[in-house]
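Entry:
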Amino acid sequence: MLIRDLKDPRLRGVTLTAVTMADDLRHGRVFFSHIEGKARAAAAIAGFRSASGFIRREIGRSLGLRYTPELDFEFDPGPERAARIGELLREARSKD
């Protein structure tokens, strides 16, 4: 859906990293990373909020749910941190 259906340029470079759902499946949190890092997180969240009605409708249609969950979108800094740690380790190895 991110690639084919959502045309918002604020969502280009976004990768979904995790989704957590409430026990009753009425609320979900969608975690994402961005190829440009945290600097583009606010714009991506605005893009997700703008497209949230469409996203919910498509999820409800494809999964056949009675109630389509409300979704919150949150930036996941994990991949960015992992890349930074990898960079530091490479620097430390090159100094040895």
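The mean pLDDT is 91.
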